[in-house]
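Feature request, filed as a ticket because there's no other form

It would be nice if the structure record came with a short human-readable summary line next to the tokens. Right now we just get the raw output. Example of a typical job, pasted below so the devs can see what we mean:
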Amino acid sequence: MSKPIILCVDDEKVVLKSLKAQLKSAFGNAYLYEIAESPADALELIDEFTEDAISIILIVSDWLMPGMKGDEFLIRVHQKFPKIVKIMLTGQADELAVNRAFNEANLHRCLQKPWSESELIETIKTALSL
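Raw output as currently delivered:
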């Protein structure tokens, strides 16, 4: 059986590289770490993993991305996969979008960019222990 996946979604490659490195450093080989540069790519990946019976347990998503905002993306994910834990990273989300994600996507937490690595890791540890 495959390891569960933590999926990071952001339109900035440097952010994705940083997230992946921090997650690997904190959690080692406990999970697989996947990245997507857009919500559309992420939705495709989620469908592929689901078809292969590989579970995505957590998504860390940016809010401001071309094509689809993070709140809309996380709401879509939540409608199909309510058990996936969702964390949003943002430097620019408006309060309405964040509240919408909490209410309609069961958002676990919203972290501000630039995030603190320790806060991110602690948030994920807390989320996965629920």
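Something like this underneath would help us a lot:
The first strand starts at residue 5 and ends at 9.
The mean pLDDT is 96.
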